[in-house]
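Q: Two folds, back to back.
A: First:
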Amino acid sequence: SWGMYNRECVSYTAWKVYQRYGYMPYWGGHGNANQWPQSAYNNDPRISTGSTPREGSVAVSMAGAYGHTMWVESVLGNGQIYVSQYNYGIAGEYSEMTINSSGLIYIYFQ
């Protein structure tokens, strides 16, 4: 629905944004995770980005050729966040994990 490939990290996080906030912008098919921060900046004044994790935000890793998006389920403290995601490790599966919160870009949809 949002120009994202099915069963990918971006389609999962787009669905989570829609589920939580009732909208997910169509970013013209710019579906790679590493394109999300710029798409958010360019396309919707309701959306901001930053380096501080918040529950209900999308965490973006810019690593690799395409990057990776994750849904921030909770901020645990001590620099840790608990995320849910799809296609981590290119396995095409849903997973949850605790990760270090530094070095990521966070997209705030509220």
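A: Second:
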Amino acid sequence: MDCKHCVAELYRADSAKLNDEAFVREALANAADLANATLIDIRTHAFEPQGITGFALLAESHISIHTWPECGFAAIDAFTCGDKTKPDVACSYLAATFEARGHSISVIDRGSPKILSNSNL
């Protein structure tokens, strides 16, 4: 089983979308689906005067987003374990959905339970 951790930053994204709680919830659900992950629940919180934090709980782990609409910025974290999950696809989808005019995406291979059980850690 593979575990992958995708970290993304979105720059110059659509401020209205970054501040729309319903849009963020829908985007997280779609990202989970595109990543071939099993969505368990989504939680979001809207801050005053602006900004959203959202968390998609997955059977395979999670996808989170924190938005700063006033800066057109969002920070995304997608962590999944499983041979079929694609957190990088989720991050790319979110960059496109929030219409980021710039973004960075890093994918980190994480220790899998199989590797850890065979190590001397």
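Q: And?
A: Strands lie at 3-11, 39-46, 52-58, 61-68, 73-81, 102-110.
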